[in-house]
Specification:
Keywords: 4Fe-4S, DNA damage, DNA repair, Glycosidase, Hydrolase, Iron, Iron-sulfur, Magnesium, Metal-binding. It comes from Rippkaea orientalis (strain PCC 8801 / RF-1) (Cyanothece sp. (strain PCC 8801)). Adenine glycosylase active on G-A mispairs. MutY also corrects error-prone DNA synthesis past GO lesions which are due to the oxidatively damaged form of guanine: 7,8-dihydro-8-oxoguanine (8-oxo-dGTP). The protein is 41% helix and 15% strand. By secondary structure, it is of the alpha+beta class. α1 packs across α11, α2 runs antiparallel to α8 and α9 crosses α11. It binds a DNA duplex through α2, α3, α6, α8 and α9.
Length: 352
Amino acid sequence: MALRRSLLLWYQHQGRELPWRNIDDPYAIWVSEIMLQQTQVKTVIPYYQRWLAQFPNIQTLATSDLQTVLKAWEGLGYYTRARNLYKTAQIILKDYRGIFPRELEKVVKLPGIGRTTAGGILSSAFNQPISILDGNVKRVLARLVALSDPPAKAIQFLWDVSDSLLDPDNPRDFNQGLMDLGATICTRSQPKCLLCPWLSHCQAYQQGKQNQLPMREDSSPLPHKKIGVAVIYNNAGEILIDRRPDKGLLGGLWEFPGGKIEENETVEECIKREILEEIAIDIEVGEHLITLDYAYTHFKVTLIVHLCRHVAGEPQAIECQEIRWTTLDEIDSFPFPKANSKIIEALRNNQP
DNA sequence: CACCCGTGGGT
DNA sequence: TACCCAAGGGT
């Protein structure tokens, strides 16, 4: 088929050189695939290289502890990925003698690995003829067939297209080439159609719709929460941090305690109330340290941070897993979300 | 199946 | 600024 041949030829000359290309270690390829979920290549590369140096094989990962794994993932986001990578390493060690399985039915059952990631791993590591449908492929195919619906409404159809196009003789290079095409030529905005090997096959281009496709879903505005945050010092000059529950947002990461500012409540009142409710201690809320705006996928937050002083009571882990007093020197050993890293940075700059 | 889950970069 | 969205999966 001309589509296959032209893509493979293009990939041979114009494909990207990436650290997880031209290797055959399914573990390393698996790690790359997980890190690349919803995350750009440029962001992933340094994490990938550090990760393989720290956890060179499945056994090393499986026998580490979760906090060490989360620390290595710190800043990458979607922390369930790290938890599932760790969990799956233990499953592979126990059920598959530490050898990454080659059967699709087994691979898709592993935590954190869905159909696209499984196809990515098996086609890349073992050259198995299994198709993929990631963000790049959805965009490329939506333009190729001039899809009139948003891709989310046509997932089954797009899988069928991806299946029918896949080159059974060169599945590895075909899948990788398809993703490279989406990443470098068939980009979201200003696609470089004149450089595209599929120019003459692309229905969107023929209809002059390449800048309008793929169609978008209409989205509702994100809710905005204001959070009061406490950096609490004790008489020894230590700082109180807590570890979040394993499930949910930023699961298992450490943070400075705080909570949502209610209506008709000042920031100071909120912080004092939240700390009493969550940690059962009485504090004195002092000067403002920093205010941070942060956008997550489904809401926005403003963190208003105050320096506080412990007055009375023994801290209790009521709405978290664990509480510790620590110091600015030791705090780097705990995994924190990015928003909290900026608070730590502000504390350092605030030091006398 | 609609919603949840981080962070950084582009427009 | 505000919004979109990246090598998606879990629930």
